[in-house]
Write a structure and sequence with these properties.
The protein has eleven helices and nine strands. The protein has 277 residues and is of the alpha+beta class.
Length: 277
C-alpha cells in the first residue's frame, strides 16, 4: 500500500496536467507554464492557432521569470486574462483573449503595449544627461521639463504594477483633478465642444500643475472612445497608449478588445488602468 501511495504521489502532477482544461484562467496558466503542453493546439483558435509552433508561450519565456495570471473579465462568450512576468529587477505584462466556441474556451489573441522601445531609448538619453544639459533641456521645454519627462516615460514603459503603485501613492491628487474638472464643467455632454473643453481643462493652471506633478500628459475623453470617462493619458505613440481612467459607473466602462482597448484593469473606487492599440 505504501508503494502504491508513493507511485500515486509521484504521478499526480502528470495526471493533473493531462486533465481537460475548462476555464480561461486555467488555459492561460497552462499556456504560460514552463512545462511542455502536448494538448496546446486543442485550446487555440484564430491568429494564435496560426502562429503556434511546437512550444507553448511559456516554454519560450526565460525560465527564471515568474508568471502570474489574473482573470480580468469573463462572461458567457468572452474572457480576458492578464499575465505578469517578473524577476528581481523587471516586470512585464501582456494580455490573453478568449472566446467560447461551442462549449470550449479557446485562446484567440495575445497583446501587449506596442512601441515602448522608443520610450526606453528616450529614457536612457535623459537619465544619462549631465546637469548642465538638464538645465538647457528645461529652458527649451518649459511645459515638459526634464523631471516631468523622466517620470512620465517611466510610467509609459513601466509595468502595470508600477503604474498602479504610482496611482495608489498619489490617489488624493488624482481625485483633486476630477473634482476640479467636474466643478468647472470642462467636459459638457455635447460632443461638438469636447475638444474645446479638453483644451480649457488642460490649460487650467491648477489642473496643469497637478497633472505635471502626477506625470500625466493630459486629461481627455477621446483616447478610449468613452464619452463619459475621464482619461488621464500617460503617453504612447500613434494609437498605442497607456493611461488611467475614471468612471464610477461600472456599466459605462468600455469593453476590452485585442483590436482597440487591450486592457481595462480595475484599481478600485471607479479607477482603471487602460491601454490601447
Amino acid at each position: 500500500m505504501k508503494y502504491f501511495l508513493f507511485l500515486l504521489w509521484c504521478c499526480l502532477p502528470q495526471v493533473l496536467l493531462a486533465l481537460p482544461l475548462k476555464e480561461p484562467l486555467q488555459i492561460a496558466e497552462r499556456f504560460v507554464a514552463k512545462e511542455q503542453w502536448p494538448e496546446m493546439r486543442s485550446y487555440l483558435s484564430g491568429e494564435v492557432l496560426q502562429q503556434a509552433k511546437q512550444q507553448s508561450l511559456g516554454q519560450q519565456i526565460p525560465v527564471h521569470l515568474q508568471r502570474r495570471c489574473q482573470l480580468l473579465r469573463q462572461d458567457s462568450a468572452a474572457a480576458v486574462v492578464s499575465v505578469e512576468l517578473r524577476d528581481t529587477v523587471s516586470r512585464n505584462d501582456f494580455y490573453l483573449y478568449f472566446a467560447k466556441e461551442e462549449s470550449t474556451w479557446k485562446l484567440r489573441a495575445v497583446r501587449g503595449l506596442a512601441m515602448t522601445g522608443v520610450g526606453q531609448q528616450m529614457l536612457e538619453v535623459l537619465t544619462t544627461m549631465p546637469a548642465s544639459e538638464v538645465a538647457q533641456y528645461d529652458q527649451r521645454h518649459p511645459d515638459a521639463p526634464h523631471a516631468f519627462t523622466v517620470g512620465n516615460l517611466k510610467l509609459w514603459i513601466g509595468a502595470d504594477a508600477t503604474i498602479i503603485d504610482h496611482f495608489n501613492r498619489r490617489q488624493a491628487d488624482f481625485k483633486k483633478v476630477v473634482e476640479l474638472v467636474q466643478a468647472r464643467q470642462y467636459f459638457p455632454p455635447r460632443a461638438d465642444v469636447l475638444a474645446l473643453g479638453e483644451q480649457a481643462a488642460n490649460a487650467d493652471p491648477a489642473v496643469s500643475e497637478l497633472l505635471q506633478s502626477l506625470f500625466i500628459s493630459r486629461i481627455t475623453r477621446r483616447d478610449t472612445g468613452c464619452g463619459t470617462c475621464l482619461e488621464f493619458l500617460i503617453g504612447g505613440l500613434v494609437e498605442n497608449t497607456v493611461g488611467l481612467l475614471y468612471q464610477p459607473d461600472e456599466k459605462a466602462v468600455p469593453a476590452m478588445s485585442p483590436d482597440s482597448i487591450i486592457v481595462i484593469k480595475p484599481i478600485g473606487n471607479g479607477w482603471y488602468l487602460y491601454k490601447t492599440t
